[in-house]
Amino acid sequence: MPNRVQLAESRPLAEASTGADSSGKMLLQLISPGWGSSGYYSAEVLQAAADAKIFPSGTHAFLDHPGYAEAQDRPERSVRDLAAVLAEDAHWDDTLQALVAQAQVFAPYRTVLDEMKDAIGVSIRAYATAETGKAEGRTGPIITSLTEGISTDFVTSAGRGGKILAVLESARTAVSEAPSQQTSNRLSDLVRATYADTEAHVYSWLRDYDPEAGIAWFTIEQADDATTYQQSYELDEDDMPVLTGDRVEVVQRVEWVPVQAPTAATEGEPAPTNVPAPAGQQETHTQESEEDTMPQIEEARLRQLEEDAGRVQTLESERDAAVTERDQARTERDQLRAREAARPAVTARVGQSTLPARQQARIVESVLSGITIGEDGSVDTEAVVAATEAAVTAAEADLAELVESLGVGQVTGFGRTASESTGYTVEDFDKAFAATSQEG
Questions:
Q1: Chain Cα centroid distance, residue 239
Q2: Which residues pair with residue 61 across a beta bridge?
Q3: 154 FRET partner, CA 20 to 30 A, in 97, 121, 275, 350?
Q4: 105 and 138 in one domain?
């Protein structure tokens, strides 16, 4: 089942555009077939995106993609970063074998983009569906369709087929040796795109990785459990990580290593300075050594750490919501099973009564709806039997009272009953009749 993902794919600006003319128009190549930073794009998928007008006229082009915090706090982006808009619907170019469109660059940015086009790239941002597969000898996310275009942005690092000729497509690679944080971010995106399925409440995230061994550790969480795996990976020619081989389930192990006691310096080597002092002795550090070993965190790195913390909170909230939903579904399932298990016995007992069939059906459903299960999933059978007996008894009593009030079973319409006698006899009637005849 394809997953719906948000992706970003980049392209060098100099390759993506012919440059802006006097009116500020600039032809952009948005994306071409092949492997990008988010997955593999086939020509058929890009042609279908052109037919569906995924990037219509008026699509915004910003300076840079939004950071994680900005995407959460201001998803509509800032007007200060709006550099251009597409002047036409993006269309498929058979000659270039790419998705292209003409853009209208706003005056303040025309000279800047023209001067920087050799150093920057163009990036598409869009929603897409993807599934894991293999193409051109690689295994990874295969983009099956582009469903909604978000923007076409100007970025610093170029990737899959976008240029200013044509367009800028955002690839976060183009460095011969990717920084560790960049590799971590790419591995996180790759693991999520490969194994997560938010519609099915399946989540995945990177736990750790070893760049020297080429191994990534990640967790896949579903409604019932969370399992940690390891899988090998390698970097392609664009320094993009690609998962290889099969994933293997693993468990985390903590290793405790004894600390060696301080030893005297040997000839030509200084004595170790990072070993704790023996118990009862005070450790001494010079101001210089503390400054030398103090970690220096750059502002950009600090921002990234804060963004990562926000992502963790979001994932934890989604996980908690999924767990709650799972527990509710399990409770409803167990109650339904308990009711259906008790239905034959309740139906049989109610069927022994003289109640009308419709009333019997109502009693059965009423008794079943009141069944509750214990914490261990068991049902109190005696309580179900007692509830059935009580419901049948009450219904039969109500029916008898109704029958009596309606006089069902008594003779009516033929004069007074014995209890309603006037006290006259046949002889009295004859005397009265005779007296009336004499008077006449």
A1: 28
A2: 84
A3: 97
A4: yes
- pLDDT digits over 132-184, tens only? 899 998 888 899 999 988 888 777 765 565 566 533 333 333 333 345 667 88
Question: Quick one: 51 and 110 in the same domain?
Answer: yes
| 35 and 126 share one domain | yes
Are residues 143 and 55 located together in one domain of the fold? yes
Give the span between the Cα atoms of 392 and 353, in whole angstroms: 7
My answer on whether 135 and 185 are in the same domain is: no
- Give the whole-angstrom CA distance, residue 81 versus residue 432: 119
Half-sphere exposure (CA, 13 Å, Cβ side) for 15?
Answer: 19
Q: Which two tokens stand for residue 188?
A: 């996180």
pLDDT at 116: 79
**Last residue in a domain, options 122, 155, 188:** 155
Is the pLDDT reported for residue 9 higher than 70? Answer: no
Q: Is residue 149 part of a domain?
A: yes
Taken in order 79, 81, 85, 91, the sign of the CA dihedral is: negative
User: In this structure, are 150 and 184 located in the same domain?
Assistant: no
CA atoms within 13 A on the CB side of 139: 13
Residue 346 lies in a domain: yes
Look up residue 48 and give its two tokens: 């279908």
What's the rounded Cα separation, in Å, for the pair 113 and 17?
Answer: 10
8 Å CB contact between 169 and 181? no
Q: Is residue 49 part of a domain?
A: yes
Give the domain range for residue 244.
Answer: 180-249
Q: Into how many domains does the chain fold? A: 3
Gyration radius of the chain over CA positions? 40
Beta-strand pair 98-105/82-86: antiparallel
pLDDT in tens, 269-297: 555 555 555 544 554 444 444 444 444 45
Give CA 67 to chain center in angstroms: 20
Q: Could you tell me if residue 396 is inside a domain?
A: yes
> Model confidence over 201-224: pLDDT tens digits?
888 889 889 988 899 999 998 877
73 and 202 part of one domain: no
Q: Residue 141: is it exposed, middle or buried by C-beta count within 10 angstroms (0-12/13-18/19+)?
A: buried
